[in-house]
Amino acid sequence: MVKAVAVLTGSEGVKGTIFFTQEGDGPTTVTGSVTGLKEGLHGFHVHALGDTTNGCMSTGPHFNPAGHVHGAPEDEIRHAGDLGNVTAGADGVANINVTDCHVSNICSLYKHITLSFFLILCFSTVHLTLITILNGRSPLLDQIQLLAVLLSSTVTLMILARVDMSLARALETLVRVLLAESSGSRAKMSSPPANVVQIWEPFQNADLQSLF
Length: 212
Hints:
By secondary structure, this protein is an alpha+beta fold. The protein has two domains: 2-132, Superoxide dismutase, copper/zinc binding domain (Immunoglobulin-like); 139-211, no CATH class. The protein contains four helices and eight strands, in the order E-E-E-E-E-E-H-E-E-H-H-H. The chain has helices at residues 104-109, 144-161, 166-183, 194-200, and strands spanning 2-9, 15-22, 28-35, 40-47, 82-88, 94-100, 115-122, 125-132. A four-stranded antiparallel β-sheet has the order 1-2-3-6. It has a four-stranded mixed β-sheet with strand order 5-4-8-7. It is globular and about 35 Å long. The two termini are 17 Å apart.
């Protein structure tokens, strides 16, 4: 079983927790709740990038590996990240319980790539951002601050999932290498250590579409 946990935080007291679970190649179940929302409908979807430095503008389009058009959750042809709307009541709480086959692609990717989930609030719409680590395809590698955030969230996810921490340790090493390179310190290293290379090497020439 593949599991992921999204700890949600946002402006004006918005917070919550979302759980993603997938058994084998079956559909993904998304459950949880978000509090502090304005009453009414809020869009709920996964974005392609994990860059939240400029709010929604820097998170990229909806996660859409198949290149489909936007659609409702019940549509056969739609973005994999389109999860429809969640409804917040008068108390500002939106309870979520969704079973979806398209978003299963995201959880299947967890078998190959470390995933972290973050929530941002943009124009009163709940956006779920997917951070993917794929060498040559993510802006994270040249943004040390975001990579450090990824490390922190990766450790959290691994602790929650009770899995091996070796990837988190390798990411920590990579952060240290990049910091040394950027500061020009005496500890500067010409190349990352072998364990880091082993993480990125399988994805150097990977076709994202082939992972699904």
